[in-house]
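Changelog entry

Holo records now carry the ligand SMILES as an explicit input line rather than a separate metadata file. Below, a converted record for flavin-adenine dinucleotide, shown in the new format.
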Amino acid sequence: MQTQNKLKDEEKNKLFIQAMDNFRSAETLDEILSSWQTILSLTHLSPNSGIHIYYYLMCKSKGINWCKDFKNKMDSKLKQMDMNHLTPEYNEQSVVVVGAGPGGLVAAIESALLGTRVTVIEKRTYLSRNNILHLWPFTMKYLNTLGAKIFYPKFGVGGMDHIGTKQIQRLLIKIGLLLGVKFYFGHNFQDLHKLPNQDQILTRCNPHIPDLPCTLLIGADGVSSTVAKRYDFNRKTFVHSLSIGITFNFNNTHTPEEISLREFAVASIYHPAYFKEIQDKFNIQLENLVYYQGETHYFVMTIKKNSLIDRNVFKEVKPQISELIDCSNVKIPELVALARDIATFCGVPQTNEIVLNHLNKPDVQLFDFSERIQSDDASRIIPVLNQKEKEIAEIAEPEVEKSSNVIVTLVGDSLIEPFWPLGTGCNRAVLSALDAAWMVHELATKKPIDDIVKTRQGCYLKMKNALAETFMEPFKISVNPYTRYSTRRL
Ligand SMILES: Cc1cc2nc3c(=O)[nH]c(=O)nc-3n(C[C@H](O)[C@H](O)[C@H](O)COP(=O)(O)OP(=O)(O)OC[C@H]3O[C@@H](n4cnc5c(N)ncnc54)[C@H](O)[C@@H]3O)c2cc1C
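Structure line, unchanged by the conversion:
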């Protein structure tokens, strides 16, 4: 009987090790979630167990090398936090993050590390973004502290300082799951509400998620943020000169010829001869051009509107830029031909096909970045009342309103839309996510919410002006903003 049980345990352990390894190497969202489901069912862990999932799994995976590496990384992060977290005060907080882009995922991971219950709501059900993000030295270092290399061994190899959007999402989702973050993919955030006669603030989504409490709402839902709109953040639009961008991806088959291609970022004001050659050869006038090599050959550039018109890319020349570049007005074969000319000029072999996106369409995209949206405030205090409280508040009882307040904060592109040639987007998303996680700490330590909002605003003003150089050594990488921003006052 004992031998039989031992055999059963050995078999179970083998399955567990296999499931953990499958999880680590999973590529698509479906693969990540199904291997995670296997891990949960083999260990009988509930997805609601928060950070205990991490401790249980690390204890059980002592024989798995990558888990040891991950635990070492997390141990040093926890040690570095230098505060008394993981206490019931942290566990009482329920953080809801809207959006599983880089900003939302970092906010979720850092909040989970504090011992808070974290849920991420993401409307998409797939990871399909091929755009490659340039990362500052600070962001590279930060991602290394999370163990990025464990899940994406090519990370940082040979001084590489960029990563595909879907690769960063993939590795951060895995880290989040291991730290007990709960994910709902395929759900659209709608608003916060209270059930009649109840005090708890809940999150309303479509499709519905039952009983999802929220003590801090983090809007990381990109430029068109539902959270910012729903909670009346004052967002201003800054209009710049007309700038049309194009991104496209060609398959990378990693032949020696392709591997030898050098990555570059050039601007026409510094390399006029290079850009004149492109114009003379293909009738394409560019202002700048960036090429990165990752899982794909990735290109991003600013193109003159007239070049697109001359190359017959539009069905109709419309005066409104948004209507002009709308996909319904774009002739995809002509745009692909233009992309092919540029890729060939840069050395991508003609035999390499353009990558297809999740809709099975060529992954080539026009975007307008002449206007950029920016929120005045990083956070707002929002009263969420049930019917009875609303009635009392109406007859002038402001105290009722006060007791039902919740902080809503924005991170990443929803807070400040990036200007892509500066490569600030993902980097500032990470910084603002760390700032948002600091609010979790302050809520748990019962700091008055007006003060929490004030500190966050101070962080935002610092973050807005952050550039790559500002965030190199000697600053420490931590959720504590006083260790990241060169100031003692926020
Ligand atoms: C062409 C291009 C090139 C770029 N190049 C660079 C670069 O070189 N370097 C760089 O740092 N940045 C670059 N960026 C910017 C970068 O992609 C973003 O800044 C970065 O992804 C910010 O992350 P985020 O988490 O704030 O938002 P996003 O990555 O936009 O994520 C938002 C998420 O929220 C989800 N969502 C939206 N609404 C809802 C809702 N109601 N409910 C639930 N989920 C919702 C979306 O599906 C999405 O997954 C580039 C952007 C573009 C378009």
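Spot-checked after migration. The chain has a mean pLDDT of 91. The pocket of flavin-adenine dinucleotide is lined by residues 98-104, 121-124, 131, 133-134, 165, 188-189, 220-222, 226, 245, 247, 300, 367, 412-413, 418, 420, 423, 425-427, 429 (CB under 6 Å).
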